Structure formats: structure tokens, C-alpha cells
Amino acid sequence: MEILISNWSNVEFVPKKYIFPLERRPGKIEFPVCHDIPLIDLANNHPTDTIQQVIKACQEFGIFQVINHGVCENLMDDTMNIYKEFFKLPGEYKAKFYSNDINKSCRLCSSTLAYDTEEFHYWRDNFTHHCYPLEEYIMTWPNKPTKYREVVSEYSIETRKLLYKILDMICKGLALKSGYFEGEVSKTNVISVNNHIPCPNPSLTLGMPVHSDPNLITLLQQCDVPGLQILKDGKWIGVQPIPHAIVLIPGLQLKVISNDMFITPVHRVVTHAKEARTTIGVFLGPSPESLIKPATALVCTKPMFRAFTYPEFLKTFTAGAKCDAQFALNHFRNKT
Ligand SMILES: O=C(O)CCC(=O)C(=O)O
Ligand SMILES: [Fe+2]
């Protein structure tokens, strides 16, 4: 069997390796989409109101969508089309990028990086590469589809600007020192694209592990096919795809810096019976040298977490291939 699911054709049943045990299956997949997830208009004429909406969303949901965000709609469509085409390229071309080595700056994998040892596979292919500084990485990117480098470099520049705009709003909203999120804490910029082919029985399998994003902040462009779900008050709820809206998720580092004021949501992806789903994630994260700790301005008596380096956090987060956010947070949490 081909490893990459994007190379499969005429899939009539879910292979055994992709069928999760009963307690981990999504089962019923007609989850309600949640209309409460904040949708924030960044072109609002009252910037202080908008900042308050962002802070409230980070505290109550840990996820929100933005419109009038400044990333050109044509660029969003072009980038989505580039990725849809990329996953349709012949297997021999894509094989050049296949790797399960986390240190490889540009890599294509299927399911997770633990493909060779995991008990069950997730129904997805994932293509990830670094984007910043552009000159350092662009030569490692694909040159097919032919416009890949041109379009994706512009997309990475525009989405990075938006991420900094949101971080600046958070900085103002939390009354932190200006430029708090610039520099080492947000230096790593990665694009991560998920592709899920239609799945004959979405109730049996998952498109992505249940997880929380370990980085600083995530930007996500969904396509028009639903699949992303967050766990809210013990229930899975869908994040509605809204054409040209962009989803934002504060990562675990932002939760720590906010001194536990923000929520980093637990989320997962379910598959779709009829349609392929492609999503583009853009992650900002700390450099390996960066020291993470609750912002002093937000600490009244004792900080909720002790200081750590990002590699220390990731080591705890990924211990036993678990990606366990609660375990990692508790490991660095100060005892009261
Ligand atoms: O593809 C999605 O909808 C979610 C992706 C995601 O959660 C991630 O890449 O961390
Ligand atoms: Fe995620």
C-alpha cells in the first residue's frame, strides 16, 4: 500500500490500520457547527473594541475567525489551488519530499511523523516547511506547481504580517510592553498543509490527532469543506468554514505568557465522505534560544508557570509520542 493517501485512487473502504478503536472513533460526524465562535471584523472603526473582542475570544474560546484581515482573497485562492495541485502531482515527484525527520526543514509525511511505529494511521498527508527568513528556505521548497515559490512566498509574507497584527493587538489588549511578541519568541515561521482525500467511512477514522498547538500562535485557512472541531465544555463542535475568513488559535506558549488567562483549545479533524479537504496552517513559534515565562506585567503575586526554553517544553510535550498539553503545562506549572 502506498504511504501517501494523496496517491490512492478508487478508495472503497477504510483500510484496517486507519480504523480507530471504538473509544477513539469520532462515531457520529454530523457535529453541530458553533455559531458562537467569535467572528471579528478587523476593519472595524473602533480599534479598542476590536482589541477587546480578540482578548475576550482568547479567554473564552481560544479560537476566533477574522474578516477584512488584509490578506488578499485572490492570494488565498491561488495558494489553496497551488496546494490542491501539489497533492495531485505524481507520486515520484512528491516522494522527493517524503521524510519523517522533524529536523528536515521541508518535508512531506502521511498521518504523523511516527508513521512507522504508530498503531493507527490518521487519514491525512501533511506538507510542512519553514518560511522565514525566506532566502534561507525558498530553495528547499518544491518548484512544482511552477508558481509554487512565487505564490507561497507572497502568502507567507502576507500571513506573517497578519499574525503580527494580531499579536500586536494582543500586546495592547494585555497592556504589555510594545513589541513584546517580536524577536525570538515568534522567530520560527512554518507553513503546514493538511490534505485529506474523501474517506468512505468518516465515522471510523480521524484526519488528525486530538491535540493543542504547542507554538505561539496559529493561523489557519480552511477550504469550504468542514472538518475542524474544538472541544468545548466536553463536546466536539465544528468550526464553520466561512469563505475567505481566517481562523486564529493562540498556542500553548501564548497561554503561558498570558499567565494562564488564555485558552489553547483541544482540537481535531474529522474526514469527509465525498470531498477532499485541504487546509493551510501558518505557525509562529519561539526560536530554540527563547526563554518563555508569564509576562511580568500579568503576574500579581506568583507566576502560574516557571520559565523554560521552548525545546524543554517540546521535549515534555512530545514525551512518549503523546503531544499531551495538560501534562506539559502541569510540568511547568508552579505549585500553589
Ligand atoms: O486542518 C485543520 O483544520 C486543523 C489543523 C491543525 O489543527 C494543525 O495543523 O495544528
Ligand atoms: Fe492544531
Q: Can you tell me the CATH architecture?
A: Sandwich
Radius of gyration: 19 Å
Q: Please summarize the sheet with the most strands.
A: 8 strands, mixed
The 3D shape can be described as globular
Please indicate the count of domains: 1
For the largest beta sheet, what order do the strands appear in spatially?
A: 1-2-10-7-12-5-4-3
Low-confidence stretches: none
Report the top-level CATH class.
Mainly Beta
The set of bound ligands, ions and cofactors reads: 2-oxoglutaric acid, fe (ii) ion
GO molecular function: 2-oxoglutarate-dependent dioxygenase activity; L-ascorbic acid binding; metal ion binding
Protein name: Fe2OG dioxygenase domain-containing protein
GO biological process, one term: coumarin biosynthetic process
Keywords: Iron, Metal-binding, Oxidoreductase, Vitamin C
